[in-house]
Batch of 2 targets.
Target 1
Amino acid sequence: MKFDHAQLFPNGLGCRMLLVGVGSAGCKALGALVRHGIDSNDPDAPTLPDSLAIHTDVQALEASKAPRQFCIGDGFSTGGDVMKGKACAEEASDKLREMFGSYRLIFFVTGLGGGTGNGATPVFVQLAREMGAFTLVMAVMPFHFEGERKRLKADTGLATLCELSDGVVCFPNQRLFSILEQDTGMVEALAAADSFLADGLVRLWHLLNEPGVMNLDFADVAALVQHSNGTCTLASVEASGEDRIPKAVEAILTDALFDRGTIISKARAILIGIIGGPDIRLHEIERIHTEIADTCQSDVVFFSGVTMLPGMEDQISLTLLASEMWIAAPAPVDAGGGATGLVQESLQLQDAPTNEFLGTDQTKIDGENLDIPTYLRRGIKLGGL
Amino acid sequence: MSDLLVSLEVGTHTVRALIADVSDDGEIHILGLGQCESHGIKKAEVIDPAAAQTCVQTALTIAEDQANIVANEVHLVYSCGGIGASLQHASVPVMFNGVISEDTVEDVKDNARAVSIPVEREIIHSVPQHFYVDGQPGVINPVGMVGSKLELDMLVLHGETTRMQNLVRVVNESRADILSAAFGGLCCGLAVLSEEQRKRGALVLDLGAGTTDFVSYSGGVPSYAGSIPVGGQHVTHDIAAGLNLSFEQAEEIKLKYASCTVDLAERAGSVTLDEDALKPRKVSLRDLNLITNARMEETLMIVRNRLAEHNILQRLSAGVFLTGGGTNMKDVLELAERVFKTRVQVGLPLNLTAGEEQLPSEAELPELATLVGMMQNVRLERRRKAPSGGGGFWPFGRRSA
């Protein structure tokens, strides 16, 4: 275990960062983050990042109330069509190149499974990389109840993003189920997911931007995700009162988003962010680290940061980013577990030989061309010999 | 009393003609079976009439030679036309003294058939499911009952006219007259399910080379049916694409080695093609199974989702039965069990007999379900039209019910 004692002086973000929300989930999260910044009366509240909300649905874009909005396509959304999302993004490439221009770090937030998230985000990430920016993606994975088709699309999209970006932080909605009430309706579940996501984003933002006793910056997050060789998962908890340290530690170690702690125990790299009041003590920080380290592998790599905020007396906030080898969840119908796996090969749908069925109508079901091999459409990686 | 019948199926992989003696109580005694590798048919559709015609003639000739009779009149089984299904409900008031007559029944059937379908399509089957007399459900034969309102649930199947006409032309040009025609999916149900299984609820899936057809039964009548234009040839094509093989090579390894399930934990093995050639090809078994599993699972899930939309999955207490060539795929039963979450068996045509020379192999039996089912359909239609007629289960003939 190592502490990062590097800077004694607060070190704000050395380079400019752009936060981009793509699609409904992304734009909503962006809106929430911005609202948080505006609502906060704290004069020391971190300056908001430059942000950009991008969507194909002009109504959803306006509803998000994100400060800078950019609509791609004709404004009427993609209807879940990934290829359409991709096309809209490509059309807007030139404009986006201008907008992405001077940023060194671009953090994308998007919900996967839909048309804009799945289709446009890879295009943006690619663009950002071409311009020399470091790219991180926070990808929200859909609930199982949102349907199998969506889940499969999300898994494929996630794999593509893992390949294209410098790192992916995963936010698996389905894990929230264990903390939602039994009879939570779909709308409420989705709203809860939105709020968890916004919450996590806000805390991460605080951590990365607050001048702290021990500093975390974007480079640490970058190093973490690169250590991950997959994706990371984010969760935050808060506790107050005398026994807030053990409470917070227990809460984070059993958090639903970490699959009740199994993710932490298997993680290869962990980032611990602590936000406390001026009354925070060194032994408390040490205790947090020790207890978390005890549940981890012995060779896990740690990144740590501690921030003090006035007004956080008697309170503690813990944010953890844990690396995770993302395995696509088996289909709820338990169909053999072989159909979806990690993908590292990009989809080449246009190259799929379809002349075998020449002379017949394309078999199209639910907008998908079924004459194209299933393994290609699902992004299944073939290992060769 | 028995009838001599000939049924014909112009499949995407094989054209088959079956000649058999069909007794009044449904015993089918095979006299001749003619099979010919299919050409000019893709996804059950005719794309090269001349080639298809030759195949039909060959199959008929072989069957005729075996049975030692001439077969110029056939009953045609088909899956072409992009078959779709619609569940209809209609109601008519009961006239006069409130006794339901045959006319009343015909009226309500006509009403139920009045479904709006695109102009290029026509109704191929209208299958009455259950009648309701003054709200009382589950009535099988309402003729003679007293009531003020008669309602009917009906399953209507429709297909694209031109595509079906193309098939009809192919058969006619090959010197055979078509006496009747029926959708293969419906026929399978008649062949492999017992009366009890039809009552309890069952699904029959015909895994063909060109299409995947299905019929579900509940309460003794078909509850739903359909045809997905994806079949065994899609699996072969996927394998060819994924492993960089020719279609023929892909077909060969599919038949010999491919499994519908994948054991990811198993160490990847390989198989060798063209062992005797100068440069034998080695392919990864794991990749082969990943490809096969993906396609088979997807296709089965499409059927499952269609049934789920109509709340049929809960009404399959007798389970699922597989027919067609796809039944011979390794582990297909296991995959289907996972997809449908119920018992899955191979569907074998019931009441089938044959002389020693004509006896089909066990592997062939599931592929004969459509042809056998067609014969059962003909028998039931004829019985229904007989003077004593009426009552019991209604079979499905072309555009009649």
Note: The first strand of chain A starts at residue 17 and ends at 22.
Target 2
Amino acid sequence: MRAGTRTGLVALLLLWSLGPMLWQLYTSLRTPEALLAGAAGLGGGWTLANYGAVLGGDPPFWRYLLNSSVVGALSTLLTLALAIPCAYALSHRGGLLRWLVGGGLLAAAVFPYVLLFLALLQAARQLGLANNLLALCLPYAGLQLPLAVLLLQAAFAELPGELEESAVLEGFSLWQRLRWILLPLMGPAVVSTGLLVFLFSWNEFPIALTWISRSELLTLAPAMARIAGSSVYTVPYGAFAAATVLGSVPLLALLLLFQRQIVAGLTQGAIKG
Amino acid sequence: MTALPAPSAAATDAASADAASCLRLEGLGRRIGERVILTDIDLEVAAGECLALLGPSGCGKSTVLRVIAGLDPCDGGRILLAGRDITRQAPARRRVAMVFQSYALYPHLDVERNLTLGMELRGVAPEQRQRDLAAVLELLQLGDLRRRRPAQLSGGQRQRVALARALLRKPELMLLDEPMSNLDAQLREELRPQLRAILSGGRAPAMYVTHDQQEAMGIADRIAVLRQGRLQQCGSPRDLYHHPANLFVAGFIGRPQINLLPQADGTVVAVRPEHLQAMSGGGGLPVRVLSREWHGASQQLLLESAQGQLRWTCDGNQAIGDDLRLGWEPHHEHRFQQSSGRRC
């Protein structure tokens, strides 16, 4: 492929994936009048008022960010804490059991969870978990567990068996092997699995909407829906766009923070040269 | 390989300590489902001795090591190490160190950490750790490499690190699974005496798996030949060469291969290529020279006879197509049953 063609294709891809985000950024910085005037008003009409409105709301927007961060972090930790032992055990099993459990996990991972939210709501009511921010972690971790186990199991299976056997003969306990040998080598897999779980709980809407009704406990997705539907007569494009931009900033920060792990191939040279 | 003679009063103590620190396999067996991997292996390795397990690939020699280490379960028989029955013990409690074919160094840790992590987690005191580390770095000349990661080491250096890690375990038994197979031929030959010195420097018995008979002969005090999970013969390299217990060992040990001459009575006569000699006069086996390879110190002739092709290591100036008569001294002749392969 010629260099020019390749650059063109990359530019097209970037535009395609970044375009909507850039559009939101643009929208968030425009006054309503400028937005309605369209491209004609490019010269003026820039404003930070949308951000002011969103951040100064009641409760202020950072509250939703905090709620979502807490739920996301706890769901991720809970999922990983459960998925790592499961994946380890599964990767050390052979034959029918592994096949059956793996198949079951796959089925659970691809099941459309939206079909479950009414049942989950019922469960939340019965167990008194409604309007409890931390309780959201339970369905989130549960729903993401199958995928996490599958991903981590593949990562465990990729590690050369002799590495762990060598540690066994050196006298390492199971916990020591995980802590010092296996998990450090699986860093990239653990981080990307964790990010997937975090992303899911950050974006999750139906469960958050139905389990939480008190506005100071809302997570980002239902909070944004409220902003969008706050007026019967107008759609507050600017405020909505500002909320979108603010809501993506923490995710971007996380991705940048873990960029190295996501890309890194730490196991290189693990075995032979 | 025996220890230095102990002072007279302590001699018997030392002898019994030697007997106690040996490895003994009694009727070791291993199967996976219906497939039998090892059958009834009986072996003994004395303290400070190095035994090589030799055999073609797939003969189960690596499995022997894995069963002894506890990485694979034992499906029959007993494993005794230093007087303890370790057959059902957890691998970590057996005090067995293993050097893997792949070396299995921890790729995310530098050389020093690879060596010290195990000691640290086993609770070795810091001063002791430093002392042992310094000693082993010195012994294996790893001092300059302590900050390197495994990926930054050559094959020979990785092997030394793996060996150092195994030594730091202070094992009661040292297992080595084809530790040289990833190295080039020249390096292998250089490292052989070094490895031999290190293994016999320790008190622990060592078991060394290889498919290379030269390596086995160069490193081991005794060699056990395995075929299809069965022990064929165990003895000194000399024993195996001069008194092979069966046809398989006779054919497996020695390059170029031993000459096999099937007889009318259902036996096979085997003679080493260097034991053939030209006969003057009427007697001997008539042969014709098919091809010739000159090796400097000797030459290899491929000969055609009425009983098949023969190899002869000699130093004459025979030409291709020459007709000769060959014989051998009676004590150089081995005779085996054709059907069972057993020595007559």
Note: The first helix of chain B runs from residue 11 to 20.
